[in-house]
Automatic annotation (TrEMBL):
InterPro entries: TamB_C. Keywords: Membrane, Transmembrane, Transmembrane helix. This is Periplasmic protein. It is found in: Membrane. Its main location: membrane. The keyword Transmembrane helix applies. It comes from Legionella lansingensis. The keyword Transmembrane applies. It is a single-pass membrane protein.
């Protein structure tokens, strides 16, 4: 008995000691920070993965915080930053856990996709406040980001009640409440509201209400802005689905309001009858129709979609009109089954048509296969260089993160068929790769290589998406330029263009290079051949630099420029050369030494600098009597464009030492300078003076020396400058005798009086006015000669009295070609000639307008006539131009009012009856 008492006493003492130790250990673990460290350390030994914590503070019994918690095993990775937890441990006495406050700054969960199953709680959970600033959930290749999560809830194994649920998903803020049963019949009542998170985004206002149980769920949703959308539907016994959507939206929101992704799942907790209904074959049909209308001031989308059937077998028919961004009509037919979906459709656009089909089957590899076929429509009045575009593509893969695409295209480029074209695309979990080759013809090839790291179809092309791309164009022949411009001939050279893209979608970094090697081209209308053309253009950081050189006749022209691409295309180009051939044709041979600066932007073109003409030969081959209409003539229905390129020019043009001119018998060297200036909306103006050195003027076989020659430029009439030319002829008088008579053309020797004028006599002609309409005036030194004698001495070297018959005809031609005015000297010449010859002489000019060339042609002729009797008059009209006809006219006076006129020439004959009435 005593032994039994001692044994019992020892056991009680030991149990008391163990109790004290366990109590002390429990107090240490729950009420001290070192105990908190020990709890996490012990938990790390029992968990299947690795557990690490940093900067633990507080105690387990009521409140603790940590800077970082990281857990990783084969199926789950958990990363927490700045966690703070406050809870009531005494609530465990009531089989409940009460979380007063749980806040996490950053949460990242990366786990495998698992079959859906409702959780079973060991305790009832009451949450007064949960706050997660940034949460990221990764399942396979899918990533879901949620921000600013706030939650208040009571969770038991009989009922879930979420009193408050707030979070931001993309640009949409979601708020909601939910009451549900995690057991049969899974009753559910929920309300959700959606609105914009950012004020800068288009306004969104929407709500969704869900109610019912497993045997009949029903829902109703509505979007009030932008536009309107109404959603109604029911789901009976987990299989029979009926839903309808109607909408009229101003535009599609930039971010999705709701998204759902899922696949077939088994619910093991349902009764056998329910499981049979869900796994049995399902038949259904989806009918979706959409139309796009256009309001008075904006384009909007209208449509209706209906879904009816038994999961998972569905038939889908979709017809939709899409007004923007591409006006098109979309037709789609699809069938779903337990392991996949089959779909085919077409999209019709004004520019062409796209056809596609796809098949997804999870039981075969690859799961996804499909084809794309597209064709460009034959557009009326199309100016595109690429026409008849057709392409065919095949794609395959196991998911939206594992795709392969191969395509082939054909087209016509400048009415020539493409030699070859193909594109290969590869999508993986790491990136999207695009590689392609387009062979326009044997001399033109385009290579494309593009890469989007970390791109997925689920997230799309975001602003932060990284870019890596290269585009290269090789052109080995430039003959195609002849079809663009008929002014050039025989273009040759090797052209290379490359483009490199890095950075992001929002901030791309584009670098480009364009080079032309060993270029050659001829400009037949200018008579020059350019060779050794080498150009190099480089762009970086939205700026460009260029330099180039081209040669002709052993002379070079240098180009150097720089500018910017953003915010507008601007730049400047320096042009520098020495004695460079500008034009080389029989009528013009001009070399220039430019030092020009060309500045440009989208609104203007500025050219300024100096141009020296060191060498030029201007020798016009032929002329006619045609004249262009003056600048002030305006044709009805035609708007005259003064400066189509909006050029602003300021150029100093200077003549060199070897600039010769040979125009209309005028020969000499030009000297001087001209200032050319032009404003964007005004014609080109010129100011300055050009002089003629060592000039000669040849007329009717005689060489006249130019004592004074000047061209004056004072405004926009550049092609018709003012002139002042004085041409003289020195005549040796040693063996010459003159008749000092008042008669101009007196060929009668009895009227001559001998005069001694010294050794030499100077006679000349002076031209003033405008180049296209000059005024001529005769003079002599000494000024004792009549106008007839001066003209005769200029042309024949002797007075009019000593002129032969052929000389007289030459004088007549000279008078008709002179621009005689109606003053005293012009009339005096004609009257003196009539008196000397005893016949009627007159000069007639008949203008004729040509509508095709907008030119007026003057036909000048000399008319010589004689009255044979009082009633009969004969005249002879001979033209001065080779194309003019000579006409003999016989006029017979019948009475005071009527006369009969007969005309005859080598081109025809005719007779006219004329009526003449003169007022007294």
């Amino acid at each position: 008995m005593r032994f039994l008492k001692r044994t019992l006493k020892s056991v009680i003492y030991n149990l008391l000691l163990v109790f004290i130790l366990l109590t002390a250990m429990a107090v240490f673990l729950t009420t001290t920070t070192p105990g908190l460290y020990l709890v996490f350390k012990i938990a790390g030994y029992f968990l299947p993965g690795d557990l690490h914590v940093e900067k633990l503070e507080g105690r387990l019994i009521d409140h603790f915080s940590l800077a970082r918690l990281y857990y990783h095993d084969e199926k789950l990775s958990l990363n927490l930053k700045n966690l703070s937890l406050t809870w009531q441990s005494k609530s465990l006495r009531h089989h409940q856990i009460l979380f007063k406050n749980l806040s996490v700054e950053q949460l990242q969960v990366d786990g495998e996709k698992t079959k859906f199953a409702l959780p079973r709680w060991p305790f009832n959970i009451s949450i007064e406040n949960v706050s997660v600033i940034d949460a990221q959930i990764i399942q396979g290749n899918s990533t879901h980001k949620i921000k600013n999560l706030k939650l208040k809830a009571d969770l038991t194994n009989r009922q879930w009640q979420i009193r408050q649920l707030n979070f931001d998903f993309n640009a949409v803020h979601v708020t909601g409440e939910l009451i549900g049963q995690p057991v049969i019949p899974y009753a559910l009542t929920a309300q959700f509201q959606f609105r914009n998170r950012l004020l800068s985004e288009p306004k969104i206002s929407a709500n969704l209400n869900i109610g019912g149980d497993f045997f009949l769920y029903h829902w109703r949703g509505e979007i009030k802005s932008p536009g309107s959308l109404v959603l109604n539907g029911t789901l009976k016994e987990g299989s029979e689905l009926h839903t309808q959507v109607q909408w009229a939206l101003d535009k599609i929101p930039p971010h999705p309001i709701l998204s759902h992704k899922g696949r077939g799942k088994k619910i093991n907790s349902l009764p056998q009858r329910a499981r049979e209904k869900i796994t049995s074959p399902l038949v259904g049909e989806v009918d979706a129709r959409s139309a796009a209308g256009e309001g008075k001031s904006r384009t909007f989308y209208e449509g209706q979609m209906k879904i009816d059937g038994n999961l998972p077998n569905l038939s889908i028919n979709l017809n939709s009109k899409i007004p923007s961004p591409l006006h098109s009509i979309l037709k789609l037919k699809a069938q779903t089954f337990a392991h996949g979906v089959r779909a085919e459709g077409e999209m019709t656009l004004p520019e062409g048509q796209l056809q596609f089909n796809a098949n997804y089957d999870a039981t075969i590899t690859p799961h996804l296969k499909g084809k794309l076929n597209g064709e460009m429509a034959a557009l009326r009045e199309s100016t595109l260089t690429i026409k008849a575009l057709k392409f065919a593509a095949q794609f395959s893969g196991n998911s939206l993160t594992d795709l392969q695409l191969n395509s082939h295209l054909t087209a016509q480029y400048l009415n020539n068929a493409f030699a070859d074209g193909n594109l290969h695309a590869s999508l993986s979990s790491q990136d999207l790769n695009l590689k392609g080759t387009l062979t326009l013809d044997n001399n033109k090839k385009l290579n494309i290589a593009f890469k989007l790291p970390q791109f997925t179809l689920l997230t799309g092309l975001s602003a932060t998406q990284a870019l890596q791309g290269d585009v290269r164009l090789d052109v080995h022949s430039l003959e195609f330029l002849q079809s663009i411009s008929t002014e050039i001939a025989h273009p040759q050279g090797h052209l290379q263009a490359s483009l490199n893209v890095t950075g992001t979608v929002k901030n791309p970094i584009i670098e480009g290079k364009l080079t032309l090697h060993d270029g050659k081209v001829s400009i037949p209308h200018w008579g020059i051949d350019l060779h050794s053309i080498n150009l190099d253009l480089q762009s970086r950081n939205k700026r460009w630099q260029a330099h180039g050189i081209l040669s002709s006749n052993a002379q070079t022209l240098n180009l150097k420029g720089q500018g910017a691409f953003s915010p507008r295309v601007t730049g400047s180009i320096h042009v520098d050369g020495d004695n460079f051939p500008l034009i080389n044709i029989p009528e013009y041979v001009i070399n220039v030494s430019p030092k020009l600066l060309v500045e440009f932007n989208p609104d203007s073109l500025i050219v300024k600098g100096n141009v020296v003409v060191p060498q030029a030969k201007i020798k016009l081959q032929s002329f006619t009597n045609s004249e262009s209409l003056s600048d002030d003539v305006v044709f009805e229905g035609h708007q005259r464009i003064i400066n189509p390129l909006h050029i602003n020019s300021d150029i100093h043009l200077e003549m060199g030492n070897d600039v010769s001119i040979d125009v209309k018998g005028l020969k000499g060297l030009l000297a001087g300078s001209i200032h050319l200036h032009q404003l964007p909306d005004e014609p080109l103006n010129a100011t300055g003076e050009l002089t003629i050195r060592n000039g000669k003027y040849q007329a009717y076989g005689q060489d006249l020396t130019i004592e004074q020659g000047q061209l004056f430029f004072t405004g926009p009439r550049i092609s018709d400058p003012g002139v002042r030319i004085r041409a003289v002829r020195q005549i040796n008088n040693s063996s010459m005798s003159f008749a000092n008579t008042a008669q101009l053309f007196d060929f009668n020797n009895t009227n001559l009086q001998a005069s001694n004028l010294g050794d030499k006599t100077t006679v000349g002609i002076e031209m003033t006015g405008r180049l296209n309409s000059p005024k001529l005036e005769l003079f002599s030194n000494p000024s004792i000669f009549s106008q007839a004698d001066i003209l005769s001495m200029l042309l024949l070297g002797r007075p009019a009295s000593q002129a032969s018959k052929s000389g007289g005809q030459l004088l007549l031609a000279a008078i008709s070609s002179m621009n005689l005015d109606t003053g005293t000297k012009g009339t005096q010449l004609m009257e003196q000639l009539k008196h000397a010859l005893g016949v009627d002489i007159n000069v007639e000019s008949t203008p004729k307008y040509d509508e095709a060339t907008n030119q007026v042609t003057d036909r000048t002729s000399v008319v010589v006539g004689k009255s044979l009797s009082k009633r009969l008059y004969v005249s002879y009209n001979f033209g001065l131009a080779q194309t003019d006809s000579n006409v003999v006219t016989l006029t017979y006076l019948l009475n005071k009012f009527f006369s009969l006129q007969v005309n005859s020439s080598i081109t025809g004959s005719g007779i006219d009856l004329l009526y003449t009435h003169r007022k007294e």
